[in-house]
Amino acid sequence: MDQNFVARAAETAGMDAIVAQGIKASGHRGIFDPAGHDDALGIFALTRLLVRRCRIPVIAAGGIMDGAGIAAALAQEAVAAQMGTAFILCPETDADEAYRKALAGPAAFHTCMTDLISGRPARCLQNRFASLSDSVGIPQVPDYPIAYDAGKAFNKAARNCGESGFGAYRAGQGAPLVRAMPVGQLIDRLKAELHRARYLKT
Ligand SMILES: Cc1cc2nc3c(=O)[nH]c(=O)nc-3n(C[C@H](O)[C@H](O)[C@H](O)COP(=O)(O)O)c2cc1C
Questions:
Q1: Residue 37 half-sphere exposure, CB side, CA atoms within 13 Å?
Q2: Residue 41 near residue 1, CB atoms below 8 Å
Q3: What is the pLDDT of residues 62-118, one digit of tens each?
Q4: Using N-to-C axis directions, what is the helix angle for 43-53 and 3-12, rounded to 10°?
Q5: Within a domain: residue 143?
Q6: Could you tell me if residue 168 is inside a domain?
Q7: Which of 54, 60, 142, 148 is the most buried (most CB within 10 A)?
Q8: Which residues line ligand 1 (CB under 6 A)?
Q9: pLDDT, tens digit, for every residue of 125-151?
Q10: Residue 153: how many CA atoms within 13 Å on its side-chain side?
Q11: Coil, strand, or helix at residue 26?
Q12: Which residues, by range, are in coiled-coil regions (predicted)?
C-alpha cells in the first residue's frame, strides 16, 4: 500500500484531514496490515508525499518536541503538528512514576519498535519489557487485547516485586528532548519557540 493509495482512500472516505505519522513517532504504527511491507518513512518524506497528493490538510507527527520542530513541519506545508511524547512528563498526564523516571533519564535515548504491546508494531522505550522477545523468545504475539492485557498484568506483578522495567513505555525518538512542566506552560513555551524559529528564518 503506497502513499497515493492512502491519500486517495482518506479522501474517498470523506476524512477532514490526514495525519502523516513518521517512523520516529511513539505508539503504534498507522498500518492496516501488520504482515504487509512497511516502508517506515520519516516524517518529512511522508508529509511531503501526502501534501503533494492530498487535497485534504496534512498534519505532521513523529519526533516533534519543540517550536523548531513545529516550524519544520509547517515548512513542509503541514497545516499543523501532532505531538505526543513532548507532553508525557506534564503533571496532567496519568504516566506513572516509573515511566516518568525512565523518560527523564538516559533510557530516553533508546527507543525501539515492538509488537509485544498489542501484537502490532509500536515504538516504546527499550527496556526489559521491549527486550522480552530476544530474552525469552516469543514466536507469535497474540492479537489485541490478549497481549495488551497480559502485558499490563505482567507489569503490575513485576512492580509488586519492585521491578519497573516491564512497563510498555511509549516514546518517540525525540524523547530526550521531553520537558517536565504543566501543559499550559509547555504550550506557551512552544508558541514562543515557534515564533522565534519563524522570526529567525525571515
Ligand atoms: C503515551 C502515548 C499514547 C498514544 N496512544 C495513541 C493511541 O491510542 N492511538 C493513536 O492513534 N496514537 C497514539 N499515540 C500517538 C500520538 O497520537 C502521536 O501521533 C505521536 O505521539 C506523535 O509522535 P511523538 O510522540 O514523537 O510526538 C500515543 C502517543 C503516546 C506518547
A1: 4
A2: no
A3: 999 999 999 999 999 999 999 999 999 999 999 999 999 999 999 999 999 999 999
A4: 50
A5: no
A6: no
A7: 60
A8: 21, 24-27, 61-64, 82-86, 88, 170, 172, 174
A9: 999 999 987 777 777 888 889 999 999
A10: 6
A11: coil
A12: none
Decide: 176 and 108 in contact? Cβ < 8 Å.
yes
Q: How many domains does the chain have?
A: 1
DSSP symbol at 170: B
DSSP for 30-90 reads: --S-TTS------HHHHHHHHHHH-SS-EEEESS--SHHHHHHHHHTT-SEEE-SGGGTTS
Grid coordinates given for 183: 501543559
**Atom number in ligand 1 closest to CA 95:** 1
Residue 124 lies in a domain: no
- Bridge partners of 60, per DSSP, are 20, 81
CATH code, domain carrying 27: 3.20.20.70
**CB neighbours of residue 61 within 10 Å:** 25
Residue 94 in domain: no
